[in-house]
Structures are given as C-alpha cells and as structure tokens.
Amino acid sequence: MGCIQSIACKPRIRRENIVVYEVSASIDQCPTVIEENSPIVLRYKTPYFRASAGIVMPPVPRNETWTVGWIQACTQMEFYNTYGDIGMSSWELPELREGRAKAISDSDGVSYPWYGNTTETVTISGPTSKPSRLTVSMNDNFYPSVTWAVPVSNSNAPMLTHITRDQSFITWLVALNSATKERIVLQTVRWRMHVDIAVDPSMPLGSRASLVGRPYQEQPHILANNEPIPPNALGRPNANDAQVLMWRPRRGAPLVVIPSK
User: Fold this and answer.
1) How high is the pLDDT of residue 5?
2) Which InterPro entries does the record match to this protein (predicted)?
C-alpha cells in the first residue's frame, strides 16, 4: 500500500539477486608451439586461457539496461628477448613498470571496458518480467613474432639466444548498468602465462629453438573473494596500445624501438 507507482519501490538489481553458476577457468593442457617458418622472425603460440560462466539475472526494471561480461587487465609483464652478450629487446608497460598503475586494460581496444563484444558480453534491456539466463565466455593467448636479428641492427644475421615471457592477468565477471555505470563484480579469476625458449642461432632454420622449463602452464585461480577493479583496467589505453618496445644494450643507454600508440 502506498508503493504503487512509487520510485522508492522500483526493484533494484543487487548482487544477492544475481545467480552465477558453472564458472570455469582453465588453460589448455598443451605446450607452447614454436614456429620457425620465417628467416626474419620466430613465432610462438601459447595455449589458450578460457573462461566461461552461466548467470541468471533478475527481472530488469523499465528504462534500465545491464551488460554482463568479462573485463580483463594485465597486472605484470616481463617480456625479454636476449641476443647473446649484445643486449635484449623488451616489451614493457611503462605505467606498470614504474608503479603508476596496478593494472592496464586488456580490452580489444574498441569495447571498453569489456574484453570483447561477441561471446564475452550479453546485454539485457528492461523491462523484463522474469529472470534471464545467459552465458558469457572468452579466451586469450599469445602469438607474437620475435626477430632473429638484433632489432636495432642493419644486419639480418640471427643473434637471438633466449625468449622469456611472464605475464599475469586478472579477469573479472561483471554486471554493469549502462546508464549509471554501477558495477557489480560477480567473480574474479587470476591467471598467468609463462614462456621460456632457448635458441641456438648457429643452427639451421627449423631447429634453432626449444622450450625449456615446465611444458604446461599453471592453472588459473578462481578466487573465493572478489577483488576491486582498478581505474586503469576500465579505459584507454589498452595493453596493446600502451606497450613500448625497448632495446636495452649490455653497454650503453636504452633505446625506444617502438613507442606506445
């Protein structure tokens, strides 16, 4: 009584009204694949990180739109390509390196703050009269190219001797109110990808590189307690645009090879 047409009685979407079920997060149980097809670059393809979840959203009020999906951010990156005793190239995220940010968005560069906008998100516009059942999923892996030759040299002679990559991420399952920007964190996943490749540049193309260390990745951790999303994880720039390729010689000053976008 007295609540009919009342704004105060308008139902609200709350965390306790959202059901999350069948959450999964894994990294494929296969080793990183090394490709030596090109005389210019070595390529490697890591196994995929995969995450999915089922969600039941309560009825959405009139004039409200909610999106449920995955947001991902990089929290740590070490990516070194060593060229004997000459030096190394290094992909770096300056804001992380210098401690100016706790995380950098890993959006596709278009769908901020979301990781992507296909299977990664579902949007529900009110009014809906009954609960909505939906599924969201995402996957991620590395497939970079590393030059055999020193990247700041005019020589094409293969000098690459080692590749080390160690990168950490947080992936959040989130419900977001499109108008008010209210965010409800539903699940938090931490995962890491590590690559260690030894290279003998004196060997013929096709037999230079080999994996060293553990062949399989550590499996992701679905956290019992959710973590907050840092501001830099929600907007520009994303990690691809923010990264810088440095040349760090054994002797001499570092040099920016490719600046951030």
Assistant:
1) 38
2) FAM78
Distance CA 202, CA 161 (A): 10
C-alpha–C-alpha distance, residues 151 and 4, integer Å: 70
Burial class of residue 20 in the structure, from the number of CB atoms within 10 Å of its CB (0-12 exposed, 13-18 middle, 19+ buried): middle
How does pLDDT run across 34-58, given as a tens digit for each residue?
Answer: 999 999 999 999 999 999 999 999 9
Please tell me the distance from the alpha carbon of residue 237 to that of residue 255, in angstroms, as a whole number: 22
How many CB atoms are located within 10 Å of the residue 85 CB? 9
Residue 158: asked if its preceding bond is cis (omega within 30°), the reply is no
Contact 239, 93 (CB under 8 A): yes
Q: Considering only CA atoms, which of 76, 71, 114 is closest in space to residue 95?
A: 76
Closest CA to 66 of 230, 182, 171: 182
Give the C-alpha separation, 44 to 80, whole Å: 14
Say what the pTM is: 0.92
Distance CA 206, CA 199 (A): 11
Q: What share of the chain is helix, strand, coil (3-state, %, to 5)?
A: 5, 45, 50
Separation of alpha carbons 70 and 58, rounded Å: 19
Instruction: Please classify residue 104 by burial: count the beta carbons closer than 10 Å to its beta carbon, then call 0-12 exposed, 13-18 middle and 19+ buried.
Output: buried
